[in-house]
Recover the amino acids of this structure.
């Protein structure tokens, strides 16, 4: 691990500290004096860029790496009599391997105490800026006709960041040229242009809106001249076969659509801010970058993510990892290389993609989280910043209970934001989790199915006071995939602010639910106090989603009450909804869109707002104005909105 000193402890850290006064955190043991209660009387360990792993980890002789601190934690957990707090001093810790926690290795808290990894001074005005990075700095640039080039050895990545800004992979910005015919192995076109594309085996075809909720990616195996002046494009297998299988099963009309973008050839290096990684010489890769105006290769800060995970924690159903906290840290620079392999990314929905051979079973896997806990309980992820990631941000899967995700900023992420719950065939029980006062925005940058916040089988869980905005698909999602009335009861989606959702993929919503949500209304789901606006999509036609609030696929035992909904494609809709109540809402469009029977749906006591100035009309109503005032981040957390 390389450890680099940060320039200062201001900026993000200062804003996070301002947004997290000790009095602001109050749940699951985080009371009015949260920061003090974890620190006072706790056993302290310290890590600093100027430390040494041979030192004892004290304040004046700290360790150099989080991995060394973890070893010290494991030696202490069997005899815990207080919390163990690992304090990381200011700096960027360039990880050479993920920090892996395991219940069997002794990473859990014990005897009612917790193991805490936090930025030094967390929760105070002196909180320091700490980054765990999975990236590698790129230097040694030389210029060649306006293109920067750097030798990067064996480096392999799907993302690049220049001066803190995401750079885009090279793209043609259009589909295949000419008259194109799909074949069993790929495509034939009457255009000779693809024969001029360099490094065809690196090229990737993108299928945006393969279904209303899918965007697949498959690589090219080769491009050759065929008979009769035709060009043959052979696709990677099994990706192309699987894409045809899955979209033949779930698309309407069935079948794989033509690709609408061609990416990742040096021939497409024409747009400033784009890049290409030449891997033609094993072990001697070369990075090409076309700079934006004003960028200087002598001063540019260029980082290529190389790790596919930053922090992970794992237990089992019988022995979960438990009582662990991550607080006040920045997680940055993570990539995910699986879509570059022959299996590609035949996307199904959300962060899930097809990995099977029988499309009727829809066997799938998920985009991994940069920070991931699998089979865990009583995990706290609080006050962190997730940014510049090529994966999903945060994953809790294979079982999660009594865990809290609070006060985090999640942005500039290739996949989804917060994902609690796994695909249906994976084991695990999810219950009593809380996701609150987080700002999730500009996620799904590369994989447009990425949800802002997802809970699957969210038994007794709450999503409250979050702001989710500028996402390409659905904002807040709670599903019951693979579950029953007992795996999704008592879900609460309260006082969130969601806007600018659904900008790329269609079949979603600002707040989306799926399936039965409990055995009765009293034990069912409640969507209340939320503000949802500008959930629109330029490709939607007629009654197509997105819908502001979408109770889909037999949504049952759901109460939608006292929400403010305006300037959306449509206010509400779903497929064959059952017992759903819409009561006391304020909206500028009263027309629901139901696909199938909806006799058991109740819509009563709602107020129609002026559709030309709905916000002003809402402010004129005390009841409506109270909902607006209470939606989104609570006052103590609104400083998060200053973090960029």
């Amino acid at each position: 691990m390389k450890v680099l000193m940060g320039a200062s402890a201001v900026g993000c850290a200062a804003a996070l500290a301002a947004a997290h006064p000790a009095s602001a955190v109050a749940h699951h043991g985080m009371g009015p004096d949260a920061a003090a209660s974890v620190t006072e009387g706790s056993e302290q360990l310290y890590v600093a860029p100027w430390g040494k792993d041979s030192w004892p980890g004290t304040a004046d002789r700290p360790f150099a790496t989080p991995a060394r601190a973890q070893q010290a934690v494991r030696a202490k957990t069997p005899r815990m009599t207080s919390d163990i707090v690992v304090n990381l001093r200011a700096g960027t810790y360039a990880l050479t391997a993920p920090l892996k926690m395991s219940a069997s290795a002794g990473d859990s808290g014990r005897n009612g105490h917790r193991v805490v990894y936090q930025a030094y001074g967390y929760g105070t005005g002196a909180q320091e800026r700490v980054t765990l990075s999975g990236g590698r700095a790129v230097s040694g640039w030389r210029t060649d006709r306006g293109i920067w080039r750097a030798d990067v050895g064996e480096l392999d990545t799907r993302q690049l960041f220049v001066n803190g800004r995401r750079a885009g992979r090279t793209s043609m910005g259009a589909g295949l040229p000419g008259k194109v015919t799909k074949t069993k192995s790929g495509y034939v076109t009457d255009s000779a242009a693809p024969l001029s594309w360099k490094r065809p085996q690196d090229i990737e075809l993108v299928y945006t809106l393969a279904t209303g909720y899918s965007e697949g990616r498959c690589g090219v195996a080769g491009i050759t001249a065929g008979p009769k002046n035709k060009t043959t494009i052979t696709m990677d297998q099994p990706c192309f076969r699987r894409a045809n299988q899955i979209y033949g099963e779930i698309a309407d009309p069935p079948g794989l659509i033509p690709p609408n973008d061609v990416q990742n050839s040096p021939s497409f290096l024409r747009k400033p801010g784009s890049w290409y990684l030449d891997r033609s010489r094993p072990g001697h890769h070369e990075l090409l970058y076309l700079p934006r105006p004003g960028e200087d290769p002598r001063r540019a800060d260029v980082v290529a993510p190389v790790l596919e995970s930053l922090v992970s924690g794992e237990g089992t159903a019988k022995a979960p990892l438990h009582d662990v906290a991550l607080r006040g840290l920045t997680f940055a620079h993570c990539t995910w290389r699986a879509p570059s392999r022959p299996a590609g990314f035949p996307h199904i929905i959300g962060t899930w993609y097809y990995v099977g051979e029988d499309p009727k079973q829809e066997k799938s896997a998920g985009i991994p989280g940069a920070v991931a806990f699998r089979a865990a309980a009583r995990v706290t992820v609080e006050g962190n910043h997730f940014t510049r990631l090529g994966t999903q941000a945060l994953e809790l899967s294979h079982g999660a209970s009594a865990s809290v995700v609070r006060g985090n900023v999640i942005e500039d992420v290739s996949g989804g934001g917060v994902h609690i719950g796994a695909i249906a065939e994976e084991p695990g029980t999810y219950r009593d989790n809380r996701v609150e006062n987080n700002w999730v925005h500009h996620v799904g940058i590369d994989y447009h199915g990425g949800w802002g916040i997802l809970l699957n089988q969210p038994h007794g869980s709450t999503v409250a006071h979050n702001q989710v905005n500028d996402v390409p698909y659905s904002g807040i999602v709670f599903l019951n995939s693979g579950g029953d009335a007992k795996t999704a009861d008592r879900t609460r989606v309260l006082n969130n602010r969601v806007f600018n959702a659904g900008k790329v993929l269609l079949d979603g919503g600002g707040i989306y639910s799926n399936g039965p949500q409990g055995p009765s209304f009293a034990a069912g789901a409640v969507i209340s106090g939320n503000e949802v606006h500008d959930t629109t999509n330029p490709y939607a036609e007629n009654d197509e989603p997105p819908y502001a609030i979408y109770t889909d696929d037999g949504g049952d035992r759901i109460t939608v009450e006292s929400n403010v909904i305006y300037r959306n494609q449509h206010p509400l809709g779903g497929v064959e909804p059952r017992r759903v109540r819409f009561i006391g809402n304020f909206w500028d469009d009263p027309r629901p869109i139901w696909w199938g029977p909806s006799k058991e749906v109740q819509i009563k006591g709602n107020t129609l707002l002026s559709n030309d100035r709905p916000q002003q009309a809402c402010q004129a109503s005390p009841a409506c104005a109270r909902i607006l005032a209470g939606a989104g981040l609570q006052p103590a957390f609104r400083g998060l909105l200053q973090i960029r």
